[in-house]
Amino acid sequence: MKPSINVVLVSLLLLIDVISVCHGGGGGRGGGLSPVFYDKSCPQIERIVRNITWSMVAENSTMAPKLLRMHYHDCFVRGCDASLLLDSIRGNPAEKEAIQNSNIRGYEVIDEIKTRLEEKCPGIVSCADILALVARDAVSYQFGRPMWQVLTGRKDGRVSLSSEASINLPSAGANFTTLNQQFIGLGLNIIDLVALSGAHTIGVAHCAVFQRRLNVTGKGDIDPTLDPEYAEFLRTQCTNPGVAVALDANSSASFDSHYFAGLRQNKGLLRSDAALLTDRRSAYIVRRFEKFPVFMTYFGKSMKKMGSIGVITREEDGGEIRKNCRTIVTSLPGTDHFPGPLHHRVEKFTTEMKKHKVVVTGKIDPQKVLKKLRKKTGKRVEIVVDKEEQPKDASAEGNLTKPNVCPPFFDCFKESEILFMLSDENPNACCIMW
Ligand SMILES: *[C@@H]1O[C@H](CO)[C@@H](O)[C@H](O)[C@H]1NC(C)=O
Ligand SMILES: *[C@@H]1O[C@H](CO)[C@@H](O)[C@H](O)[C@H]1NC(C)=O
Ligand SMILES: *[C@@H]1O[C@H](CO)[C@@H](O)[C@H](O)[C@H]1NC(C)=O
Ligand SMILES: *[C@@H]1O[C@H](CO)[C@@H](O)[C@H](O)[C@H]1NC(C)=O
Ligand SMILES: *[C@@H]1O[C@H](CO)[C@@H](O)[C@H](O)[C@H]1NC(C)=O
Ligand SMILES: *[C@@H]1O[C@H](CO)[C@@H](O)[C@H](O)[C@H]1NC(C)=O
Predict the structure, then answer these.
(1) Residue 238 belongs to a domain with what CATH number?
(2) Which of 223, 241, 352, 381 is the most exposed place for a label (fewest CB within 10 A)?
(3) Is 85 or 427 the better-scoring residue by pLDDT?
(4) Does residue 44 line the site of ligand 1, with CB under 6 A?
C-alpha cells in the first residue's frame, strides 16, 4: 500500500499488551525507580522541592489541587515523563495545548523549582521527578509531613502531542466501565480508581464539565443519580459555564475523606464521581474510604503506582534530563520522537481493549505503522482496514471542530471552548480533575 491516501484508518489486530503501544513503551519503561536515586547526586532535592511547594501552597491553598492535577495529567498521557510541561514547537501543538489541559496551572512553580535545582545539582534532576515530588508535597503541606514515599529516577520524555492528551485523559463524563477500562489499561486497578478519584476531595470543577447533569435531555431534567437538593444548589451556582464549584461540597480546601461521604449522599459532582457507586466493588471501596486513615493509606499507594506509569529510566529508551522543563535538550534523529515523522501525522490513536484492536488515524502510511508496532511489541500485528468506517472517518477527521452530536452528560453551552471535548471523535476527552 502506498502512502497516497491522505487520511487512512488502520485497524490493527494485535494480541498484545495494548499499553506498551499506547505509551510507546520499550523494554526499560515501567520499572527501575528507586527510593535513594538522588541520595548521592542531589541530596538536597526533597528539601528544595518541599520548601518551594509548601511556600506556594501556604500563600494560596488553591495551588494544592492544581499541582496534584499536573502529575495526573502528565502520567495519564505517555506515562510520567513530564511531556505535559513541553511547549509546542514548529507547529506541533503539545499536550498543554489540548483543551483538557487548558486549566492546568502551576507551570511557573515547576520552573522555579527546576531553576533552583539546576543551581544546586546541574543536569541531575528530571522534570518528571519534580512533578511527582511536587504532587506529594502539595497534598502533604496540610499535614506538615510527607504523606507517602516518592520513588525517583524518571527521565524526561521528548515527545508531547496535544492529540494524545485529548484521547488518553479520563473524561469527567465517563461511566464506570470506561473509567475502569482506562485505569486497567494503565496498570491501575479498581482500588486505584476509587483512591485516585479521592483527589477530588480538594479543588474545583467548572460548570461546563458537569452542567449536562442538570439538564440531561434538554428539558431541564436533572440526572436522577444526583441528589435533588444538591442539583438545585448547583443550578443556582452555574450562572455560566465558567463558574467554578467545589468538587467536595463540604470541605474542598481540606484533604480529607468527605468526598466519599458526599458520594454516598449522591453529591458526587462529576458523572465520573457518581459512577463509582454504579459498580458493586467500587461502591464498597467508597464506603471503606470514608475512614480517612484507610483512604490516605490507599491514596499514597495508588499515587506511587500512578507515578510509575510508563516511566522512562534509561537514555536508551529515549529519556533525558532537561535543563528547562519546557524544552527538550536533543531530539532523536531517525526516530519517531517529537516532532517525528510518524507522530507528527498521527491524529488519533485509540485502543479497544476487548477486541485487541488499536485504531490509528491520520496522514500515515499503514505499512510503516505496522512495522513500527511490530518492532515495538514483538507481537503479530495485522491491518484490518475497516471499509465501512473509512469514508465516515475521513470526512470527520477533516472537520474535528464541528461535531453534530452532543453526547449525553457533556455540556454544549460554550461551544467555542468545549467543542473538541464534545466531539464524537473524542468521547474520552476532558479530565479527571478540573
Ligand atoms: C524555605 O526556605 C527559606 C529559606 O531557607 C525559609 O525562610 C522558609 O521558611 C522555607 N519555607 C518553607 C515553607 O519551608
Ligand atoms: C489564589 O489563587 C486563585 C487562582 O489563581 C485566585 O483566584 C485567588 O484569589 C487566590 N487567593 C488568594 C488568597 O490569593
Ligand atoms: C459507558 O460509556 C461507553 C462510552 O461512552 C459506552 O459505550 C458504554 O455503553 C457505556 N456503558 C454503560 C454500562 O453505560
Ligand atoms: C435545558 O437545555 C435546553 C436545550 O439546550 C434549554 O433550552 C433549557 O433552557 C435548559 N433548561 C435549563 C433549566 O437549564
Ligand atoms: C456537610 O455539612 C452539613 C452541615 O454541616 C452536614 O449536614 C452534611 O452531612 C455534610 N455532608 C457531608 C457529605 O459531609
Ligand atoms: C467544517 O464545517 C464547517 C461547516 O459545516 C465549515 O464552515 C468549515 O470550513 C469546515 N472545516 C473544515 C476544516 O473542513
Answers:
(1) 1.10.420.10
(2) 352
(3) 85
(4) no
